[in-house]
TrEMBL record:
<dbReference type="InterPro" id="IPR041694">
    <property type="entry name" value="ADH_N_2"/>
</dbReference>
<feature type="domain" description="Oxidoreductase N-terminal">
    <location>
        <begin position="6"/>
        <end position="105"/>
    </location>
</feature>
<dbReference type="Pfam" id="PF16884">
    <property type="entry name" value="ADH_N_2"/>
</dbReference>
<comment type="similarity">
    <text>Belongs to the NADP-dependent oxidoreductase L4BD family.</text>
</comment>
<dbReference type="InterPro" id="IPR011032">
    <property type="entry name" value="GroES-like_sf"/>
</dbReference>
<dbReference type="GO" id="GO:0047522">
    <property type="term" value="F:15-oxoprostaglandin 13-reductase [NAD(P)+] activity"/>
</dbReference>
<protein>
    <recommendedName>
        <fullName>15-oxoprostaglandin 13-reductase</fullName>
        <ecNumber>1.3.1.48</ecNumber>
    </recommendedName>
</protein>
Length: 117
């Protein structure tokens, strides 16, 4: 059983979200199937246009953003355990993906971020 903490829209807002307009909710993820991967968030993107994007959501919906994630369990040979990818999973600590919209990062990531060229 895997639980994820997801950032959700509590109340709509203009500009930067005031304290209390977003909240963390704990949700139980379903078991993942053949061809799917269980992902764990490493970096979540918080963008300046968050308020504009949130207008399309209903109160209680998960905030949608890209994040850097690691495959922690895999039933998809294209994404073995430990693979680092970019996913549009929203603001959540864990998620399940079929791999179709995942973008692999270089195997040496994040070391390449600090290497001088």
């Amino acid at each position: 059983m895997v639980y994820a903490k997801s950032r959700t829209l509590k109340r709509h807002f203009e500009g930067s979200p005031p304290r209390g307009n977003l909240e963390w909710k704990t949700v139980e993820l379903p078991p993942f199937n053949n061809g799917e991967v269980l992902l764990q968030a490493l970096l979540l993107a918080g963008d300046p246009y968050l308020g504009v994007a949130a207008k399309r959501l209903k109160e209680g919906d998960a905030m949608m953003r890209q994040q850097v994630v690691r495959t922690v369990e895999s039933k998809n040979s294209a994404f073995p355990t430990g693979t680092m990818v970019v996913a549009s999973s929203g603001w959540t600590t864990h998620s399940i993906s079929d791999g179709k919209d995942l973008e692999k990062l270089p195997a040496e990531w994040p070391d390449i971020l600090t290497t001088k060229q």
